[in-house]
Amino acid sequence: MIGAVDECCISFMPKKDAKKDIPTEYKEPLEMSGVGEIREGKPHIHCVLGRENNISISGHLHWAKVKTWFVNVYLLPQE
């Protein structure tokens, strides 16, 4: 997956409890690349996002809005 989004929500795990999920929303343009899989018919994606001033953030993608930009997703058939 590659492209850019106008806003999104990603999450990460806190250092002391890997079972928890901390979602954070970003309402700004972000460059995006990601990998994932389709589990039980739903996408499971982990991504890296580039922010202003060459700052990168990463995590599990919950949702993204694409208005100004585009995101291309490439799927490989399961063998």
* Overall helicity: under 10%
Query: Average pLDDT, to the nearest integer?
Result: 95
Shape: globular
| Element-by-element helix/strand order | EEEEEEE
CATH class equals Alpha Beta
- The total count of helices amounts to 0
The rounded distance between the terminal residues' Cα atoms is 20 Å
User: Helix/strand/pairing class, anyone?
Assistant: mainly beta
CATH architecture level-2 label: 2-Layer Sandwich
Describe, in plain words, how this protein is organized in 3D:
Helices cover 0% and strands 61% of the residues. It has 79 residues and is mainly beta. The protein has one domain (2-70): 60s Ribosomal Protein L30, Chain: A (2-Layer Sandwich). Strand 4 (30-39) and strand 5 form a beta hairpin. The chain is globular and about 40 Å long.
At a glance:
With 79 residues, the protein is mostly beta strands.
